[in-house]
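Bump. Still looking for PRONE domain-containing protein structure tokens.
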Amino acid sequence: MAINSNVLAEMEIPNAYLKSLPKCGKDCLGEGMYRYLTADQFFPECLLDYLDQSSEYTTLEIANRVEASVHIWKQKYSKRHSLRAKVGKSSWGGKVKGFVGDIETTKVLAQRAETLLQNLRLRFPGLPQTSLDVSKIQHNKDVGQAILESYSRVMESLAFNITARIDDLLYVDDATKQRASATAELMPVNEPGQIGAAPPIQRRILPSPFSYQRSLAGATSAMGASNDSDEIDESPDRRTCQLITNGNLRDALAGSLERLAF
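Sorry for the wait, here they are.
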């Protein structure tokens, strides 16, 4: 969120803040940080990894010290550069080389410190306002800039809350999906037609005893019906022969019984 930072950057640096700065950037930074800044090769990310950023207070303190050193070296560079322009090169003679080297060194140190401060703010975007920002707000006399600064600060706060809420919702949604997928893996469901599902078990249905009795009854009735049909299909002559044969047998039996009786 660079809205509020841009508004603060456009504000004029108060004289009270500049007067409160130490005269030397080394005293402001400390021995360790100053040694890294003045080295032949400068890597801001390595320097940030070296510094203690365990809490917001220590990180803000580092930002205040680096920002103060930036303005110390910028003031020195502007003063020496203006002095060099006023005096001119002809009157310096051979003694000008050392002074020019100091000017370039001051410029390089200011640029390195400013780069370090930018990387620190990129690494910690939610860093509170520095001492310079607070001093600008307190000593600002431009009403328009004051309104823009307060409005941008409120907008950044709302945007931060909305972003945090969206991140929470995305986290909960992701956790719910992972829990659902884990549950689905632990409880496999075998549905018909599903790849890898076991075929359904086919049970053999035994015939009912009632159906067996019905089949027997049907077979018996069918046999009886066939016998009846055979009797119906017999001709009258065949029936007459059977009756005569039955009558002869009866007469023979009756005669045999009479002989036995006498």
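Confidence is low (pLDDT under 50) at residues 208-217, 219-241.

Edit: fixed formatting.
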